[in-house]
Structures are given as structure tokens and as C-alpha cells.
Amino acid sequence: MSLSFGEAGYRRLAQGDPRRTIVVAKLDHRTQAAIGARDADVMLSGATANKQLNEHKDLTAADYGRLEGLFQTGRILRDRERANHFRFIQIDADQRWYAVVKITRNQETMLVSFRQTNARNERAKALSSDEVQR
After folding, report:
1. CA atoms of 108 and 96, how far apart (whole Å)
2. In sequence order, what are the residues at sequence separation of 6 or more whose Cβ sits closer than 8 angstroms to the Cβ of residue 113?
3. Cα 42 to Cα 73, 95, 119, distances in angstroms
4. How far is Cα 83 from Cα 128, in angstroms, rounded to an integer?
5. What is the C-alpha separation between 90 and 74, in angstroms, rounded?
6. Distance between CA 30 and CA 93 in Å, rounded?
7. From 28, 41, 81, 134, which residue has the greatest number of CB atoms within 10 Å?
8. 109 with 86: CB under 8 angstroms?
């Protein structure tokens, strides 16, 4: 589980104040440089937190704790249509994890989506993306 998120972070996520942002993970230096992030913090807005809680009710604090590992070792894909969006995909014990971050104009890293995925969806996303090397 991510040290920067954990149970306390999940409680803040569950509160879902749309005016707040919370740090959900930290990027390592290689990933940060690969996607052009200004700093290591991956932020989650209150509005996106509400969306996540409504659309992905099955995700737990432990699942959100996977984000840091996903960002450190997952496959990175740059969206061809939205060059400031990066997809991270990782297979962990027969589960496929998928996260999307966007780099804002201020070069902040915002989590856009996080969920489990399947091989078919993963292939479809890869077709509209370019691989990014660390």
C-alpha cells in the first residue's frame, strides 16, 4: 500500500469535497521525467474523487494503495488524441490495473481515472496510444 495514500487518504477520498485535491501517489524521478511532470505528486480533485466513488465502488483503500507501484513499474502509454494524458497499465496477480493521469498547463499531475481493466480493453487503449519509455 502506498505510504502517501493509505487509509487516511482513502477517508479523504471518500469525503469527496469537490473543492479540494489530495495527493494519491508519488512518482519516481524516471516516471516523472518520462511524462513531463513538474513534481512527484499525483493529485486527485474532489470532483474526480466523487466520480471514482460513484463509478468504481468496488475499489478499496488497498486498491488505491497500488497506484504508486503502478506508476513506478506499469506500462506507460501516451494518448494520441490528448497528448497530455498518459495511461498506466499493469498486470498484478491476474488483475489488470489501469490509471490515467493528465499533465495540466501548470505541469501538475492529476489522476483522471483508476480501475481494473481487461485484456480486450487494454488492447483497444494501446491501439490509440504510443508507448513511453522511462
Report:
1. 26
2. 48, 52, 98, 99, 100
3. 15, 22, 26
4. 11
5. 5
6. 25
7. 41
8. no
Q: What is the pTM of this model?
A: 0.83
Q: Are 60 and 14 in contact (CB under 8 A)?
A: no
Of 76, 91, 92, 88, nearest to 112 (Cα)?
A: 88
**Which DSSP letter does residue 65 get?**
T
Amino acid 10 reads Y
Give the total residue count for the chain.
Answer: 134
Is residue 118 exposed (0-12), middle (13-18) or buried (19+ Cβ within 10 Å)? exposed
